[in-house]
From TrEMBL:
Transmembrane segments: none annotated. InterPro entries: TraB/PrgY/GumN_fam (IPR002816), YbaP-like (IPR047111). It comes from Megalodesulfovibrio gigas (strain ATCC 19364 / DSM 1382 / NCIMB 9332 / VKM B-1759). It comes from the Bacteria. This is Putative GumN family protein.
Length: 332
């Protein structure tokens, strides 16, 4: 039977899918799971923390992986911390050569085995809902050969693109470009392969539940994304935590998703960040903003190790607030 091919074989198209899925869409998956209202105005800080162990200091910045030009220029405090660093650390380095290496494998990472469609892995009700959604959006039915989270990645990327958001404006991409131009060493806290295979630890039922919830909230992406950008600009970690984790408390079926996408990774990334401090390395660290909020955030695990985590006040005119230490809702 001839293998079904969804995407063009052209290298640039595969690299675009890789860029959308790797370290860009995965951190956004849970962010589609909430309906939000505009947040109340409050004084702004940066979405960056100073992490200290004795005399050793590094800076940890939360990133929005898809954004728009309104995030720039970055606050002078953030820019100064980056210029003062000797190396950059990110979740994964999505340099063109690295994307080119993984792009040929994207079919295996995002597609169901040959001969299968979502009708074979979803419940009848779930498959019917996906089919109806694709039809309503005038999208090709051949997308049904994608895995549940692979389909979510494609649909999310299309919706974000249509709204004018792009990985080109992503905070991590911004600093990766600057680091590469300056010849700055780039460290990775995770690997491309790890991020692409996270769904393997989720049961089919959980994957279906996540996909169904995302489809339900797809029309709210514009509201959610604007609220997220606004919270990031204010340095409002409490609001971003609410946006990210509201469904975790109301939909128990989604708990394994949050546990795998956040909790496990947050602890592992915190360990990697702590090692930079142990070695006295002056590193500017950029990770998805959702990893810096909530009860089991990277900050939580760093504080468990006895490290001091202080939110950095903004320097731009009209964007200043006192530094806040351990103000998040941290687990005891």
């Amino acid at each position: 039977m001839e293998t079904i091919t969804i995407f063009s074989q052209q290298k640039d198209v595969r690299m675009r899918l890789a860029r959308a899925f790797i370290a860009r869409i995965l951190p956004l998956l849970c962010l589609l799971l909430v309906l939000v209202a505009p947040a109340a105005a409050q004084p702004a800080a940066t979405f960056m923390w100073e992490i200290r162990k004795g005399e050793a200091i590094l800076h940890l910045l939360g990133s929005l992986h898809m954004a728009d030009a309104t995030l720039y220029p970055v606050d002078p405090a953030v820019n100064r911390a980056f210029l003062d660093a000797k190396a950059l650390a990110v979740e994964v380095d999505v340099s063109p050569d690295k994307l080119a290496r993984v792009a040929p494998q994207m079919d295996a990472f995002t597609r169901l085995p040959d001969g299968q469609t979502l009708a074979d892995v979803l419940s009848p009700e779930g498959a019917a809902r996906v089919t109806a959604f694709l039809h309503a959006q005038d999208l090709p039915s051949r997308l049904m050969v994608l895995k549940p989270l692979g389909l979510m990645a494609v649909l999310t990327n299309q919706r974000m693109d249509a709204l004018g958001y792009s990985t080109n404006y992503g905070v991590d991409e911004h600093f990766l470009r600057r680091a590469r131009a300056a010849g700055m060493p780039i460290h990775e806290l995770e690997t491309l392969e790890f991020q692409l295979t996270m769904d393997q630890d989720l049961s089919p039922a959980v994957q279906e539940a996540v996909l169904m919830q995302a489809l339900e909230e797809m029309d709210d992406v514009a509201i959610y994304t604007r609220a997220t950008l606004d919270a990031w600009k204010r340095g409002d970690a409490a609001e971003l935590a609410r946006l990210t984790f509201e469904d975790r408390h109301t939909q128990p079926m989604l708990e394994p998703f949050y546990e795998i996408l956040f909790d496990r990774r947050n602890e592992a990334m915190a360990n990697g960040i702590a090692r930079f401090l142990d070695r006295g390395e002056k590193v500017f660290v950029v990770v998805g903003a959702g990893h810096l909020v909530g009860e089991r955030s990277i900050l939580h695990f760093l504080q468990q190790r006895g490290l001091q985590c202080t939110q950095v006040p903004a320097m731009a005119p009209g964007n200043s607030s006192p530094a806040r230490t351990a103000f998040l809702h941290l687990a005891p």
